[in-house]
Amino acid sequence: MKPSRTSLKIGELATGQDLELPIFQFEPADITAPSVYIQANVHGAEVQGNAVIYQLMQLLENCELRGKVTLVPLANPLGINQKSGEFTLGRFDPITGVNWNREYFDHKVDVAAWYAEHSHLADGELIQAYRAMLVERCQIRLQSEWGVTTGQQQAVMLQRMGHEADIVLDLHTGPKACKHLYCPEYDAEAAKLFSIPYTLLIPNDFGGAMDESVFCPWWQLSEYVGAQGRELTVPVSAFTLELGSQEYIDLDDALVDAKGIMAYLSHRGVVADSVPAAPMQRFACYLKDYKKFHSPMGGMVEYLAKVGQPLVAGEPLANILRLDQYGSSKVLTPLCLSQDCVPVLHFASASVYQGTELYKVMTNVFVMTNSE
Amino acid sequence: MKPSRTSLKIGELATGQDLELPIFQFEPADITAPSVYIQANVHGAEVQGNAVIYQLMQLLENCELRGKVTLVPLANPLGINQKSGEFTLGRFDPITGVNWNREYFDHKVDVAAWYAEHSHLADGELIQAYRAMLVERCQIRLQSEWGVTTGQQQAVMLQRMGHEADIVLDLHTGPKACKHLYCPEYDAEAAKLFSIPYTLLIPNDFGGAMDESVFCPWWQLSEYVGAQGRELTVPVSAFTLELGSQEYIDLDDALVDAKGIMAYLSHRGVVADSVPAAPMQRFACYLKDYKKFHSPMGGMVEYLAKVGQPLVAGEPLANILRLDQYGSSKVLTPLCLSQDCVPVLHFASASVYQGTELYKVMTNVFVMTNSE
Amino acid sequence: MKPSRTSLKIGELATGQDLELPIFQFEPADITAPSVYIQANVHGAEVQGNAVIYQLMQLLENCELRGKVTLVPLANPLGINQKSGEFTLGRFDPITGVNWNREYFDHKVDVAAWYAEHSHLADGELIQAYRAMLVERCQIRLQSEWGVTTGQQQAVMLQRMGHEADIVLDLHTGPKACKHLYCPEYDAEAAKLFSIPYTLLIPNDFGGAMDESVFCPWWQLSEYVGAQGRELTVPVSAFTLELGSQEYIDLDDALVDAKGIMAYLSHRGVVADSVPAAPMQRFACYLKDYKKFHSPMGGMVEYLAKVGQPLVAGEPLANILRLDQYGSSKVLTPLCLSQDCVPVLHFASASVYQGTELYKVMTNVFVMTNSE
Amino acid sequence: MKPSRTSLKIGELATGQDLELPIFQFEPADITAPSVYIQANVHGAEVQGNAVIYQLMQLLENCELRGKVTLVPLANPLGINQKSGEFTLGRFDPITGVNWNREYFDHKVDVAAWYAEHSHLADGELIQAYRAMLVERCQIRLQSEWGVTTGQQQAVMLQRMGHEADIVLDLHTGPKACKHLYCPEYDAEAAKLFSIPYTLLIPNDFGGAMDESVFCPWWQLSEYVGAQGRELTVPVSAFTLELGSQEYIDLDDALVDAKGIMAYLSHRGVVADSVPAAPMQRFACYLKDYKKFHSPMGGMVEYLAKVGQPLVAGEPLANILRLDQYGSSKVLTPLCLSQDCVPVLHFASASVYQGTELYKVMTNVFVMTNSE
Q: Which CDD domains match (chains A, B, C, D) (predicted)?
């Protein structure tokens, strides 16, 4: 089965040129499984997700599908095309500085009020009504007489597509990073299916990202009706997959991650074929234990700790080289932590200001035991 | 009286060079009035505040001072020196994209708990204890083992100086703007003293800016103890003065604003000499009525509405010129609002993407009657 | 008569999106006059030329045309859409740093060799053969197996269109500037027709700009055959019009410049209607007398000298404000020149590094007497 | 022996802060060998040269020196500190776009005239007089009443130090690159001493770089007097060492290159100790055979050819991935060359515009036979 291709206008440049997204869609005749929405490259330099979508579409063409799958590569055309020197300055809007992945809409649903009006509905209808409300609110958001920002328009148009799906995957990368997954705590079992060794378990807080914008309203609903004595499993799944390092395309590695996604889709019944998860040890920590380490000084950086490899307390993360201090002990300063950790990513450049985020590390890491 | 000059290290560059702030201080022998803290140029392109500090220091040298006055021009050395083409890219951190004026620390004081422990104190002692707590929390914030970002370090070091003063003025400008003042609602009378015709009355919400970081914790305290039946006027004043347009220095106009500040300081007793406020009609609106208008399309912009001049509903703010559409009606699109407003600022560039913030306008504007 | 509209692909972005130019063409049935090529906005922030083309096309629609007129607004889509903060970073390629107006192709024709082969041709045939050679060389340049840079491809595709015309106008602006014209010395009379008071008379040196890329090969031919005793007037005219300041659109002022262009086209017979030149005093200097003044120090700049207004030796161009030096004589430094000049443009930002080009000034200015 | 440390002011920022270079100098009491000047990090992201200087200074401290050695790490403080996103935008001046390594001064010495006046001098005196002239011209250049640009001031101050030495090493890196050396043709033997496998042999053309600015005037003199029948070996040596990839610090690898430099200095007698060149096969090509390959299309790039590894004609350099073309043959395009080559460097980002310089490759590569 071949996907259909459409496009969606999400903005206009100063020259008048349209900003358009390519949208690929696999729509089986007989739908019995959840629908899926996958996007990539919302941060301009994080290109590998496109390669994963490329490999995934080829796999999907050759399997039996039971749910609709929508794929949006190159999801931020303005960011992708925004070069600054030999680098893609696509992490934030070049005009406003706002991170493209913090522009999604916080519905701030008054769940109590909404549920008071809809509590009579059966679960299926309840879910349908709630989803319709989320989609409509995105629509209203886009139609403000005062307009919305460039980044909000793009984000809310993507989010609207996300709300219409049951499963949402947002494909990112770190700067220099090992593969890791942002997974809501309620969905921790899913983390054992992707080809990703490290998982961050995130709570029900909206921080502006796509995955949160999709699952938070549902999680809130689930918790609220739970408190009212009605059990309602969160009916959507949304994850951010961090597929290694930015500014890097590797088709072979993309196939590995495409197969991990297939394993998850197989598990969810979207793909009829049985695709096993890749065997690997999987580790996790809670988001509160995911720490940012900022450089205590300016200088040149020799990154010593490898991403994805455990680091014992007291072993150096990095050396700071300060040639201006040659002749003193400050010429070379090793930076260490006082606790064990797993470095997950580090800064992309080899020179930093004081305060530059040097490493992100997982602490209090635990093995995800296989409950199945 | 001449000011003393010291400097404060607030960061380190990649080359190892220190980032330093010049600090000027007038400290009269006999202090009977509130202390004052004034900073300028936190956004790199907003340079006119430096010229105002220059004129103000010359006025202060020649008057009788009764309170300590601390002045910090050039308050963001990294931002000021960050050029991009013929422009100063100093609105946000070039690495993270975070607005330099959204990095201040939200104390999130648990006012109830704090007051439970300190309610026995008399007003003077209560204020002293609360202030000491705010200063100490800034200090703790700066000493995190994980470090803080470049922008947080700069902001919290400025904020700590702000907490030590009774009056805080943060000197900014708009992109292309008329003069306007951000004034907390509780301090509206103060707005009649500065040489600024337009005032935005802001509520007790922390949005990350310097003025809010200073007054919000006090306003919260005042409201809380008020609810407990104890009257405590907010003991600090903090304002953001928007002194016209960025990328512009005008010494004569700086003198006008320096005199406006002198009128306020005179009113507060900091300056013994009587300095009258400049006679002018002053207008205000509430922050909720201060609207951002985003361009509904990409194109070239002819800005038609002048900043600081009322605009009747239906009159055009701007024309969007779209040469690619020559021959159709879309080649020239006038943009209008459906309500009366006062345009306060517009975008600095003459070409926009769809969604670029084109104008900020005041609606529901009212005259500030002179109650004195 | 309405223009036709076509488009030309001049590049491809990272997302795969085409970079396209809109091309408008007036082509009268009966052609008896020179052909004209006009482009605008090769530097991204220099947008006013688009407004001039807008006004000019409306004038052309209502006049009797005798020559073909090709107009290319928005000629650098990549540069126009490249924002950095509230500014258009469109002066140089964001990847390579190369000025978009220094990418034109230097034919380095071996005129002696070429003329040895073609000296038998009559003037008309000679011109036709030389033009065909220039166009073909552009074509070859674009077909290199190693490819050409993004900027070269754009430039050479524009240049090829320029070579096909007899009259080439390249519409630019300065940063903060008065109107001025780059005019080759052999064509000085033409400077009296545009609505532009200041003219720079440029010699036969190729510096990489569009106008030079068009006229230099012809000027070389003319000089060479002149030395061989054959008189051949340079058969092409090419000018760069600097239409005031960047980041600024003004439709009324655009009409003034459109009429100036009409006066020139009328003089050249392209427009049958008689359009007189606007009466104004016109001044000129030679390019060697057009001086760049670099700031001798870093600091904040109060621009004092107005562009387009003569400045007497010893009068200040600008003040440099250095708050870090408050208390010393260095806090305010006026910058003066030791000779009379006319400031033509100044830097766009109000803060500079040591060495930033602060002003460009004309020296040894003379009145262009009207020889007609 | 410990080096002395001084500093040199080479500019001033907008805040007034000085731009300073640290200068380290080893000056033996008894000088019998050529003097050496080594600088690093003129391009802001090319940091590894600092690490090499760090290792080299430690080696120099422990050897017997016979010539003066001057080392300038961190040679472009403005460029090093100029961040754009997670990258150092230090290849070109952020205001003007001019490459920091194309700002050196072209003396354009009228060698014939100069020699006419100085031909009576013996070789030693001739060299001394010529050197004094070059240094003085740099000085004059810096004292222009119109000032020089920020980049010219920095470059000419560095160049002046270079002219005072007999041996000049400029330490750079490529974007993603293997180690390679720019070596003037007259000095090809020297290429066998550094720990660098690939050499580009460059002719006597000034392109704006440091090494050329140092050796070109001497090469011209040597050639001119040679034509007059007087043999004068070029008395200076100047090389650009490209030490791998930018944005990368590796102290172990820096030691390898420091030892390579020691081998050269030992060969030249600067270091009394005998330091052998590292055994390795060394390859070279002429600069005319060093080719830039520009991407024929926009898209995402999978770099396939490894730098420093020979590539056979027809083997792919890279794949261009174009998700917007999924479903057509254009979704994946391998890019090949029709001749054998050694890829030396490739672009740093994994997405490109049409025309982006994708790879630089050596063609017509030959082995440098060891003549010793």
A: M14_PaAOTO_like
- Span B243-279, pLDDT tens digits: 999 999 999 999 999 999 999 999 999 999 999 999 9
The CA-based diameter of chain C, rounded to the nearest angstrom, is: 77
Tell me which residue in A89, A321, A327 faces D85 most closely, judged by beta carbons.
Answer: A89
Mean pLDDT of the C50-60 span? 98
CATH architecture for residues C4-280: 3-Layer(aba) Sandwich (3.40)
Which CATH architecture best describes the domain D289-364?
Beta Barrel (2.40)
Q: Which residues of A touch C84 (CB under 8 A)?
A: 84, 94
B80 at the D interface (CB within 8 A)? yes
Beta bridge partners of A334: A319
SS3 labels along chain A: CCCEEEEEEEEECCCCCEEEEEEEEECCCCCCCCCEEEEECCCCCCCHHHHHHHHHHHHHHCCCECCCEEEECCCCHHHHCCEECCEECCCECCCCCCEHHHCCCCCCCCHHHHHHHHCCCCHHHHHHHHHHHHHHHHHHHHCCCCCCCHHHHHHHHHHHHHHCCCEEEEEEEECEECCEEEEEHHHHHHHHCCCCCEEEEECCCCCCCHHHHHHHHHHHHHHHHHHCCCCCCCCCEEEEEEEEECCCCCHHHHHHHHHHHHHHHHHCCCECCCCCCCCCCCEEEEHHHEEEEECCCCEEEEECCCCCCCECCCCEEEEEECHHHCCCHHHEEEEECCCCEEEEEECCCCEECCCCEEEEEECCCEECCCCC
Torsion of CA B152, B153, B155, B159, to 10 degrees: 120
> Closest approach of chain D CAs to the CA of C107, in angstroms?
19
Residue C247 near residue C88 (C-beta atoms within 8 A): yes
Kindly report, residue by residue over B96-120, the tens digit of the pLDDT. 999 999 999 999 999 999 999 999 9
Pairing of strands C167-174, C237-245: parallel
Return the CA Rg of chain A: 22
Q: Which of A5, A302, A306, A354 to mutate to test the interface with D (most CBs of D within 10 A)?
A: A302
- Copy the structure tokens of residue D49: 């040269």
Hey, are the CB atoms on D87 and A91 less than 8 Å from each other?
A: no
CATH 3.40.50.300 fits C288-365, yes or no: no
Is C31 an interface residue toward A (CB < 8 Å)? no
Q: Which CATH number fits domain B288-364: 2.40.260.10, 2.40.50.100, 3.30.70.260, 3.40.50.150?
A: 2.40.50.100
Residues C350, C337 contacting (CB under 8 angstroms): no
Superfamily in which the B4-281 domain is placed by CATH: Zn peptidases (3.40.630.10)
**Which C residues in the span 322-341 are in contact with D, Cβ-Cβ below 8 Å?**
322-325, 338
CA distance B227 to C239: 74
Q: Identify whether the C-beta of residue D56 lies closer than 8 Å to the C-beta of residue D3.
A: no
Q: What share of chain C is helix, strand, coil (3-state, %, to 5)?
A: 30, 30, 40
pLDDT for the residue numbered A369? 79
Mean pLDDT of D297-321: 98
CB A5 within 8 Å of CB D324: no
Task: Mark yes or no for CB contact A151/B292 under 8 Å.
Answer: no
ipTM, two decimals, is: 0.96
Structural contact between residues B7 and B22, judged by C-beta atoms closer than 8 angstroms: yes
- Residues C223-282 have pLDDT tens digits of 999 999 999 999 999 999 999 999 999 999 999 999 999 999 999 999 999 999 999 999
| Nearest-angstrom CA–CA distance, A22 and C15 | 10
- Tokens standing for residue B252: 């004569």
CA nearest to C174, candidates C319, C348, C40:
C348
Which member of A250, A301, A348 has the closest CB to residue D86?
Answer: A348
